[in-house]
Structure formats: structure tokens, C-alpha cells
Amino acid sequence: MCWSVPGKILDIDNNTARVEVSGVIKKVALDLISEPSVGEYVLVHAGYAIQKIDREKARFTIDFFRGKFSHD
Amino acid sequence: MIEYVDEYRDEEICMDLSGKIRAVSRRRFNIMEVCGGHTMSIRKNGIQKLIGENINLMSGPGCPVCVTSINDIDRIIALARVKGNVICTFGDLFYVPGTDSSLADEKARGGDIRMVYSAHDVLDFAGEEPEKKFIFVSIGFETTAPTSAASVIEAGKRETDNFYLLPLNKTMPAALREMVRRKDSNIDALICPGHVSTITGTGIYRPIVEDFKVSCCISGFEPVDLLSTIYLLADLHEKEEVSLINNYKRAVREDGNGKALHILYEVFEPSDTVWRGIGNIPGSGLGIRDKYARFDAVKMFDIDVPVSVEDPDCICGEILTGVKKPSDCALFGTACTPVNPRGACMVSSEGTCSAWYKYGE
Asked: Contact A2/B13, CB-based, under 8 Å?
């Protein structure tokens, strides 16, 4: 039940955003995160954005595993 | 291409990790995946088969539906039987058997039971149908509790007087402590819940590492996340080291989500609560603070809950604590199936029995 899915903020109206999650557009409440902006990726859980995804760390992780485990 | 999903399903990385794990894990050891979402992903992706036989993955108490006590299920059913009440709940709770009924049974008898995606939906219902009393059954761990708290604050702003919350949320730290403390659980390492950690941060696992010398690795939910987590834990075990690792850095900051935590503890305060299979764990529940008592279904509805009786043949409790596996249960796959579940672990899509039934051992 603690499942969350990453989605991209398309636009923001007051405290609600339209977020694209795997090609589906959802209305998401923004009460739980600070300073959201259009174009950012957030984790969506039970109708709320619960965290922003750190783009740099996501890239680093996948590069790390590619480098460490795929090419050594 | 779905960003932040597809790259974590890369087959080449997964197969490399599989080989690395097999090479590094030369001694048998036990890893508990705490979260029901991890259980589901492990089964769905055949992770156990990819990591060899030396690593035994055990499911833990991280499915909120499964750990909701039968007495709490009976309380929800009693509330559903009051004329004018509408019970709103996440879908998985719908079919969980209580002592003599379930919410599905109550709906079939004419009760107004509604599945919702979000606590926010319930506020909208309450505004549209002011003559009814809407009770949101608030289950879930630290991931979900802030969303419930936000809905209570919003209800206050809207001056809604027909919205109530039944607070059945649970928190992880004391339960994890209880799990690793038990001698019969034999846990060598924990895969820690990624989305709980998104809210709490990493610090809640430090006592487990320091006091019990059990390694903790916070993990995401895709196959690359889980296999790399298992590799990191296997590597530590082989080196006879113990550590806390955050392997889900794209979503988990060291100090968590401060805003969500603030909202969570603005509305809730720690309370005692009973976990199915474990019993009462002091301080592991969340009660509604007096300031928000007018939204508290426990305080606002005087309900008689009958004495609850567990199904004597169901071993959900032992499965939730990793002591037994679904295949140890005489009911599994015969008298207890997803269509006709006898226990909560078969009802929830994240329940261990449901995952085993759907995806095999």
C-alpha cells in the first residue's frame, strides 16, 4: 500500500497539480511538498505528491550500476 | 519510456547483479523485506530465483491491511452498520474478514461502503452529501499517514462537520525493533521500506543497526533497486560488517520530508496499537490529537464492538513475522484463495499469501 509512482508535474493550480503518471494524467494534492514547479518529477501516493525525485541522484544511481556491474 | 521506472528494469544490469550476488553469498543468511510493496515486486520479478539458494528472503509486517487487527476490522464493520454512516476505505480493506462479516458483506446487505483512492476524495463526498456522515478508515504507515493528516487539516479549513477519520495508522520504528528482537525471527539484515523512508528519512533505522547489529538497506521497488540492495547486504554479510545504507537516494533524503512530518505530527500523536500477529506495540500507532477531536471517529461515535475471534486455522500472524511461509499453511491455495480469502494476507494485493498465490514460490 506504500506504493508510490513517479510522475511529471504538467501544471499547477493553487495547491493542486496535474501530474502525468505513465501516460495517465492525475490530479494530485501538493500539501506535503515544498516549492513544487512545473516539469519536476514527484512521487505520487494516495492522491498526494509525497516527495520530489532528485534527478541527479537518479542518474548517478543508474550510471553507478551500469558502470560497476555491467562493464567490469 | 517511463522515466525513473524503465531504467530500473534493465535486464542486463539485473543479470549482472544476479551473478554478483551468487558469487558473493557463500554462506546462508536471512533477509527480511519489511514492505508489502517489496514482497510483491520480489515475487512478481522472480527475484528469489535470481539470487541463489544461500539467501532466504522473508516477508515482514509491512502490509498495512494485513497487520490491521481483527478487532479494528470489527470496529469498522460496527461503524458501517450505523444508519447514515458512509465508510470510505482503500480497496484492499474491503474483503478482509472480521469475526462474522466483512465490508464487502456489509455492502451486499445495503451498507454504504465506498472505495476511495485518496482521503481527499472523502472530503469532496462530505461536501456533496451533507446529510450523511463520512468515515475515512485511515490505515497505512508513515507514507500514508501524512495524506490523512492533510485531509483533516483541510476539513478544518472547509469547516466540514460530516467528515471523520478512524485512525488505524501504524509507524515502523517500534515494530522493526520488535521484529529483530524476537529470537525466532532469525533476521540477519533488513530491506527497509523505501516510501516510508521518503517521509521519515534514514535515521529511524540507526538503532536497529547499532543496538541489534542488523544491517539495514533502504530500497526502491524496481528489480535493479532490489537486486542491488540484496547485493549490498550480501557483500556486508560476507565481510562480517554491519551498516545502514540508503540505496534509494533519488527519493529518500537523510532527513526525510520535513513538511510532511510536520503535518503528520500536527494532527497525530503516538499511541499504542495492536498489530495482527505481533500484539500491542506501545507507541507504534497514531491517535488524533485533542485539537482535532471533532474529526476523530473513535471519540465521536459510541460504538459497541463485539468480542473478536480470529480464525483458528489461519497462520497470518506467523507469516507476518517471518516465522512461517504461506506454504506452511494448510489453508493456502485450497480453502484460502484471493477469491475466497480466509486471512488478511491473502486479501491484500501486497499480502505475502496473495503474492505467493499469484506469482508462485
From this structure: no
Q: Which of B16, B118, B251 sits opposite A43 (nearest CB)?
A: B251
CB-CB under 8 Å, B5 with A22: yes
Q: Which fold has domain B6-39+172-195+203-247?
A: Rossmann fold (3.40.50)
Residue A46 distance to chain B (closest CA, Å): 5
The alpha-carbon gap from A66 to the nearest alpha carbon of chain B, in Å, equals 6
Locate the domains of chain B by residue range: 6-39+172-195+203-247, 66-171+257-300
Under an 8 A CB cutoff, do A33 and B154 touch?
no
CA distances for B163 relative to A38, B121, B311, angstroms: 32, 11, 33
Residue among A41, A45, A70 whose CB faces B195 most closely: A45
**CA neighbours within 13 Å on the CB side: how many for B24?**
20
Q: How many CB atoms lie within 10 A of CB B15?
A: 14
Query: Can you give the pLDDT of all 361 residues of chain B as single tens digits?
Result: 667 788 899 999 999 999 999 999 999 999 999 999 999 999 999 999 999 999 999 999 889 999 999 999 999 999 999 999 999 999 889 999 999 999 999 999 999 999 999 999 999 999 999 999 999 999 999 999 999 999 999 999 999 999 999 999 999 999 999 889 887 778 999 999 999 999 999 999 999 999 999 999 999 999 999 999 999 999 999 999 999 999 999 999 999 999 999 999 999 999 999 998 889 999 999 999 999 999 999 999 999 888 899 888 999 888 988 888 999 999 999 999 998 888 889 988 889 999 999 998 7
- SS3 for chain A is CCCCEEEEEEEEECCEEEEEECCEEEEEECCCCCCCCCCCEEEEECCEEEEECCHHHHHHHHHHHHHHHHCC
> In this structure, which topology does domain A5-70 adopt according to CATH?
SH3 type barrels. (2.30.30)
CATH code reported for the domain at B66-171+257-300: 3.40.50.11740
Residue B125: list chain A partners with CB under 8 A. Answer: none
**Whole-model pTM?**
0.93
* Whether A65 and B193 lie within 8 Å, measured CB to CB: no
Out of A41, A57, A69, whose CB is closest to B3?
A: A41
| Fold agreement between B6-39+172-195+203-247 and B66-171+257-300 | yes
Q: Tell me the domain boundaries of chain A.
A: 5-70
